[in-house]
Amino acid sequence: EPAVRDLRGRAGSGPHALLFAPQDVVVVTGLPGSGKSTLMRRTVRGPRVDSQDTRDRWDARMPRFLPYALYRPLVRLDHYAGLRRTLRTGEGVVVHDCGTQAWVRRWLAREARRRGAHLRLLLLDVTPQQALDGQRARGRGVSRYAFLRHRAAVERLLRAVRRGEPPAGCGSVVLLDRDATDTLSLIGFTR
Q1: Quick one: pLDDT band at residue 118, thresholds 50, 70, 90?
Q2: What is the per-residue pLDDT across 152-165, written as a single tens digit (0 to 9) for each?
Q3: Does residue 39 sit in helix, strand or coil?
C-alpha cells in the first residue's frame, strides 16, 4: 500500500471504511476542533483511546468552579495510563493524538513494532478557521497559545506528509478532509 493515501477532495466518492491489520495502532491527529473525537465516536468499532473521553470523565467528577488547568496534569496521567493498559492487550487500537507531543507518536510506533504491527496515521487536514468553528460548535476551545502550538505541529506534519515522508516509525498516512470524514462510516480492524 502507498505510504501516503490522499482521500481529500473526494466528497461522497471516498471509501466508507478504513480497515487495518488486527494489531495495528491507528492514530487520529489534527487541529483541536478538526473533528477527531467526533470521527472516532461515530466510526470506530473496537478499542479506542480518546483523551477527550478521559477529560469528560474528570470534568464530570470535578466541582464546576475548579478550572481545568488545575487538574489537567492528572487527566493526562490518567489518559496515558489507560493508553498503556490498552496497548498491553496487543489488540488493534485507535488513538486520539493532539499532534503536539512527538514523543507520544514515537512511543506508539515502538509499541506497534513490539507487537509486529504498524503505526497508521489518520491526519485530518482542515483549515484553522474550520477547526476554530469546530471548537465553538462543541462549546469548548483551547487557548490561543495552545492553538498556535497545535497549528505549527500539524503544519510541520502536513508538509512532511505532502513530500511523501511519513513520521518516523509510521507505516502509512491517510489524509482526510471534512468531506472524506463525513463519508467514512467505519474505522476498524480485520480479523
Answers
A1: very high
A2: 999 999 999 988 88
A3: helix
Average pLDDT over the chain, rounded to whole? Answer: 90
- Rounded to 5°, angle at Cα 127 from 166 and 172: 15
3-48+91-189 architecture in CATH? 3-Layer(aba) Sandwich (3.40)
Grid coordinates given for 16: 466508507
CB atoms within 10 A of CB 77: 11
Nearest to 174 by CA among 11, 1, 7: 7
Kindly report, residue by residue over 2-32, the tens digit of the pLDDT: 588 999 987 777 789 999 999 999 999 999 9
Tell me, rounded to whole angstroms, the distance of Cα 91 from its chain centroid.
17
Task: Enumerate residues 6+ apart whose C-beta is below 8 A from 44.
Answer: 94, 187, 188
Beta strands in the chain (DSSP E): 4-6, 17-20, 25-30, 48-49, 93-97, 119-124, 170-176, 186-189
Domain boundaries, the chain: 3-48+91-189
Give the distance, in angstroms, between the CA of residue 14 and the centroid of all CA atoms in the same chain.
Answer: 20
